[in-house]
Design goal:
Layout lengths: L15 E6 L3 H12 L4 E6 L15 H10 L3 E3 L6 H8 L6 E3 L7 H4 L3 H8 L4 E5 L20 E4 L1 H15 L5 E5 L4 H11 L5 E4 L1 H10 L14 H14 L1 E3 L4 E5 L2 E5 L8 E4 L1 H11 L4 E5 L12 H13 L6 E5 L1 H8 L11 E3 L2 H6 L5 H5 L1 E2 L10 E7 L3 H13 L5 E9 L7 H21 L4 E8 L2 H11 L4 E4 L14 H8 L4 E3 L17 E2 L3
Parallel strand pairs: 1-2, 1-5, 2-4, 3-4, 5-6, 7-8, 7-13, 8-9, 13-14, 14-15, 17-18, 17-20, 18-19, 20-21
Antiparallel strand pairs: 6-16, 10-11, 10-12, 21-22
């Protein structure tokens, strides 16, 4: 990832630079101030409100006033983000001046990553700087689409430092490492849990998530929401988790009792749980004691949006009181959790805690951030760049890793657009959510493997059906110029008279590269037992 600090001064001085920031003026001011010091002409854009939060509104006058006060410069606030008036204002801007665009969350074209909107934003600048982590998990016109039309699209120092903090915390924690995972949506939380598993020592599962875990273990859960279709996957995770870490679930619960609540040690079928109980909070406090790294994701209440989670407030108090600045680290992630604690806590309670929004959940789960993947520095304009589509069908086998190594030796890294394709065979469930859960660890592993060779996966696609047929169909759809596959294993022989790579090799319209094939494979695609290439 290239940052603005790595760009030569001559490409910045006097240039129009569009900086996308999080609505945290104190942090954004550092990036903006450094660019003003290099005589840049600044156009600033941000997102306030939107998905999962409050409905977006026009930026209040307090925002440009505070930004102006912090920077010590006049900030001109425009009433639109695109249009002739905006273009005229930007053309008139002088070095050292700042223009603030209207709230981008107001524009559905931005959320839809519309090409026309992205081109209008790109036309305002010579350089694009993305310094906004909190929307980096969403593919927007203002952070992904715009990069297609700007020759220099780089990360800002705030974004780069936040990503490094996240990655260091999760991949190289100070042990013991405690993860507290609440909220709901098992479909998004299981990949996160699997990604954390190799590094954590203790795991506490709370929130609505805990009741699906308890149900999977055969316990009564009252009227709590249960994601039944994931119970088998939860059981598999619990077995693996218990081999790596100390796993804890709630032992008692706060349930509704008329107009109030009461604490129970066991749920009846009619109980309506709203939070974890007193003993569960005490248990969690014990787990926090002695933990050198603490990651907290998601509210511990059943429905944080409807009920204020008392446990969130009490655990926050424990974190604030118990964590010395010297050696213990705590990181809180997810807009749901931050919203829950903001209802009862002021900023002083979070002064030595690291707070992150929903984008952090993708990073923790090992997933790629679309906005980061889109950044680039081109010798020519991005609009002149044409990447060649390369298809890499994947599975969880070592043969797929073998294919990555093969790929790195046979393609031009700068000009390859890599598509990862995971096919769930007919013999497995056609459940899309289940396929995503099964494929995500594989996608994550392959993304890391590709990165070792300087490669980036630009697309991750899931399909159902016969693997060979789906590979061929998708290759035709994207007009693939190359298919790269690992050798077939004995398990793949069940898909037809030939293994999957052999069938793809025989029927593909483009060249196919296949790595070393096992001796029991029936495919006749080898040349001297190593790599075969089919000419188009």
């Amino acid at each position: 990832m290239v940052t603005i600090q790595q760009i030569p001064l001559e490409k910045i001085r006097g240039k129009r630079i569009l900086v996308l920031i999080d609505p945290n003026i104190e942090k954004a001011a550092r990036t903006l101030g450094s660019l003003i010091g290099k005589s840049a002409k600044l156009i600033v854009a941000t997102h306030v409100g939107g998905p999962g939060g409050q409905s977006p509104t026009k930026l209040k006058l307090d925002f440009p006033k505070e930004l102006s006060h912090t920077l010590g410069l006049r900030v001109r606030k425009l009433h639109d983000a695109v249009g002739w008036g905006v273009t005229r204002a930007v053309l008139e801007i002088k070095p050292g001046e700042i223009i603030l665009l209207e709230n981008l969350s107001l524009y559905p074209q931005d959320a839809a990553n519309e090409v026309a909107f992205a081109r209008q934003l790109a036309s305002l600048c010579d350089v694009f700087v993305d310094d906004a982590l909190e929307v980096s998990h969403r593919a927007l016109a203002s952070n992904v689409g715009i990069t297609r039309w700007t020759p220099i699209s780089v990360a800002g120092p705030w974004l780069a430092s936040r990503l490094k903090e996240l990655e260091d915390f999760c991949t190289n924690p100070t042990r013991p490492f405690l993860a507290i995972v609440g909220g709901g949506h098992i479909e998004s939380k299981l990949p996160l849990l699997y990604s954390l598993l190799p590094n954590i020592d203790r795991l506490f599962v709370g929130g609505a998530l805990a009741f699906s875990f308890l149900k999977a273990l055969g316990q009564e859960t009252g009227t709590a929401p249960i994601e039944v279709r994931f119970l088998g996957l939860i059981q598999d995770f619990v077995r693996k988790a218990e081999m790596h870490a100390e796993l804890a679930l709630p032992e008692d619960f706060i349930v509704r009792a008329g107009e109030g609540t009461r604490c129970v040690s066991a749920l009846s079928p009619t109980d309506v749980p709203v939070d974890i109980g007193v003993h569960s909070r005490a248990r969690l406090t014990d787990l926090m004691t002695g933990a050198y790294s603490i990651l907290w994701v998601g509210s511990l209440g059943v429905c944080a949006q409807e009920n204020r989670a008392t446990s969130d407030w009490e655990i926050l108090q424990q974190l604030y009181a118990a964590i010395p600045r010297r050696w213990q680290r705590a990181l809180l992630a997810g807009c749901e959790l931050l919203s829950s604690i903001s209802k009862t806590a002021d900023s002083s309670h979070c002064s030595h805690l690291s707070l992150f929004g929903d984008a952090a959940l993708s990073v923790i789960a090992g997933q790629r951030l679309p906005a980061i993947e889109a950044l680039h520095v081109d010798a020519v304009g991005a609009k002149d760049r044409v990447r060649k589509p390369v298809l890499l069908p994947i599975s969880g086998s070592h043969q797929t890793v073998e294919a990555v190594r093969l790929l790195s030796r046979h393609i031009d890294i700068e000009n390859a657009e890599i598509h990862l394709l995971y096919v769930q065979a007919d013999s497995q469930t056609n459940d899309d959510a289940g396929a995503r859960l099964l494929s995500q660890p594989i996608f994550t592993r392959l993304a890391h493997e590709l990165a070792r060779y300087g490669l980036t996966a630009h697309h991750q696609v899931i399909r159902h059906g016969d693997p060979a047929a789906q590979i061929l169909e998708y290759a035709n759809q994207i007009h693939a110029e190359l298919i790269v596959m690992g050798s077939c294993s004995s398990s793949e022989l069940n898909h037809g008279p030939y293994c999957v790579p052999g069938r793809v090799f025989d029927n593909a319209k483009c060249p196919v590269l296949i790595g070393h094939v096992a001796v029991d494979c029936l495919a006749a695609t080898l040349v001297n037992g190593q790599v075969s290439e089919k000419s188009g």
